[in-house]
Amino acid sequence: MTDTSANRTLPAFVLPHHPIRDALTGSVASIAITFAVVVAVGYFMVGAKFLSFGNISIIGTFAIVPLFVGVFSGFALLAGVVDLSIGSVVGISAMVFAFLLQAGWPIWSAGLVTLVMCLIIGGLNAIAIVRFNADPIAATLGMLTALRGISWVLGGDMQMIAAFNMDLWSAVNSQVLGLPLFFLIGIGLTIIAAVVVTKTRFGRHVQAVGGDDRAAARAGISVTRIRTLALLISAFGAGLAGIIWVGQLGSAARATGLGLEFQVYAALMIGGYSILRGGVGNPIGGALGLLAVAGVANILDLSSISPYYVNIIVGLLLLAAVLLDRIRGGDAFE
Amino acid sequence: MSLDPALAATTPAAMPLKGRFQGWSTALTLLAAWLLVIAATGLYRHDFLSHQTVLAIAFTMAVVGVLAVGQGIIGISGGFIDLSQPACIILSSLVAVRLSEAGLPFIVVVIGAVLAGMIWGAMNATIVVFAKLNPVIVTLATNFIGLAALYLIFQSAQVPIGSEIHSLGRASFFGLPAIWWPMLLIIIVVGFLMRSTRYGRRTTAVGGSRIAAQARGISLKTTRYVTFMAAGGFVGFAAVLFAAAAGPFNPASASTTQLNVIAAVILAGISLAGGRGNFWMLLLSVGFLSTIPTALVFFGLSSATQSIFQGVILMIAVALDGYRARRTGP
User: Where are the beta strands (DSSP E) in A95-222?
Assistant: First the structure.
């Protein structure tokens, strides 16, 4: 880069892309800082206990379901089709899986049927949104309600289905290196998703479709195919999380996953995603957002502060995160 | 219609005839769907066609209808959705309860609740205008914060038995619940204001195209403040009806109403993207949606099944709306 070209085109301080520098200024930067602040606050308020393996294991256990939901539904956000039905999909998946287990089905076939059902739900979302051009928020709000109703009916008078399975319970609640196995799997999935999003053709197509669907279509990308796949992935992840839920608790209740979609999306937005604008965000940022929220909940719990403050802090963090994103060059409203 | 330059310049479908035809088709579809539900249930169970049924439907309609007016104002002006209505209505209801507990006259209770709603709306508008953040995210966050804060303040509240607001919830007028009539009046008046006054048309114009509206000298900031505060005021008034008719309520009591309200607005053809809609249609959509729970009970289905139907109806309505927009849109 010569002096003349630097003067003509770019300010002098703009440097070529570099992974570390990109990480400090990119979409993950603010969540990395938020995450560090949460850890620091936890350390000062709770003490060294906050960072002990035992406590991280507790945080991790609570974070498993949101982590699985978040990693997969992040694809739908990236593709510009927010899927609000994920909370209810977790609920119906848990209910149906528990129902089949109770009816004596083996784990694998029950899980397979449950996941196929969730893919069908994702397909229905896709038909409404992609085929019929329905508004994603409103359409998946409809799906959310309908599925919640089905969970309610399945729950019956008991309002829940007990389905304790020793094999499943010990698998889901097993520990590796002092941390929950499924928490580590969730982290692993996050890293895989991050590689898929940034390094593969599919991931770049998803980002392109979410960023500007018309431009993507002109570039020869099938917007229909990408968005359909993104919605299927989102429903699949929620289905997986529902099965894990049953494994963790040994039962499914009609209120399982109620309001989870807003909890997860608030955390994902704190982590750099946007529910209104596709193409922004990164699975690692999203996972850090979910962990930051889980960390806040844990700090309040250990300090015996009312859990209602979690939502107040999440709300404030959410506003701060989108404001920061806007200042950094995101879309301003009006 | 073309008398107003702001609207004429911002309505992309400059075909009044077609627009009117679409309005009629929405009305006829809603009416047909509503009558179908009534007829089917009435044929299955003759005792469905009773005064009790009418009362049950009217009770549901009252709160949902007034909330839908607030939601519609946000939608038609380009604010998309106010997700903070559940927190706002509980806040205003709590204000109404506390004021009536203090023994203040009914009118003070109403004014207090409406003011609480308007202050809430002004707070949302302030964040939207000054931080330049999208209303959907702002109201999502303020709903989180608001409901959590309300839980810190109270767990359960109820209007004092024997107070004026309590007897309002049990009074009836011309065979319908007393709380139904203010809803009817509000929908008719707001529908008229939005159609036939400059302010209503300006609000709609901002939703249609904010750039064009701004070019015509309409202030976006003022519009946001006015729409959010008006919508908040309606939520505050809905809170009076809610507190009057509901028994003891807790901060989560209004959360399930949210979806009914959004569904009613979409079914009424009030575009969430802004710039299009007729508030009078809310009478039909709210009536139709409020009939479903009662009808299902008569079919012997548990009241839990109502959300299945409501969800499916919402999805179909949104899909048809999107399909129509693509067929007729640019």
Answer: 160-162, 175-176, 179-180
Query: Which of A46, A129, A30, A91 has its CA nearest to residue A249?
Result: A91
A332/B141 Cβ within 8 A = no
pLDDT band for position A329 (cuts 50, 70, 90): low
pLDDT for B145: 92
Phi-psi category of B173—alpha, beta or left, where left has phi over 0 and alpha has psi -120 to 50? beta
Q: Residue A64 CA to chain centroid, in angstroms? A: 10
B176-177 vs B172-173, strand pairing mode: antiparallel
Both tokens assigned to B195: 């159609």
Q: Which residues of A touch B266 (CB under 8 A)?
A: 138
Q: Do A146 and B310 touch (CB under 8 A)?
A: yes
Nearest to A333 by CA among B216, B204, B141, B79: B79
Mean pLDDT of A301-313: 86
Chain B residues near residue A321 by CB distance under 8 angstroms: none
Would you say the C-alpha torsion B71, B73, B78, B84 has a positive or negative sign? negative
Mean of the pLDDT values across residues A77-106?
A: 93
Closest CA to B37 of B314, B285, B302, B303: B285
| ipTM exceeding cut-off 0.85 for this assembly | no
Residues of B in contact with A145 (CB under 8 A): 259, 307-308, 310-311, 314
B-chain residues near A323 (CB < 8 A):
131, 133
Provide the whole-model pTM: 0.84
Please name the residue of chain B whose CA is at the shortest distance from the CA of residue A259. Answer: B255
Say how many residues make up chain B: 330
Share of chain B above pLDDT 70, in %: 92
CA distance A148 to chain B (A): 7
Confidence of residue B327 (pLDDT cuts 50, 70, 90): low
pLDDT at A156: 81
Task: For residue B180, count other CB atoms closer than 10 A to its CB.
Answer: 24
Beta strands in chain A (DSSP E): 160-162, 175-176, 179-180, 251-253
* Closest to A119 in 3D by CA, of A212, A11, A209, A231: A231
Mutation choice for A interface testing from B74, B83, B144, B258 by most A CBs within 10 A = B144
Question: Which among B33, B67, B30, B60 is positioned nearest to B187, based on CA atoms?
Answer: B67
Q: At what angle do helices B220-245 and B51-74 cross, to 10 degrees?
A: 160
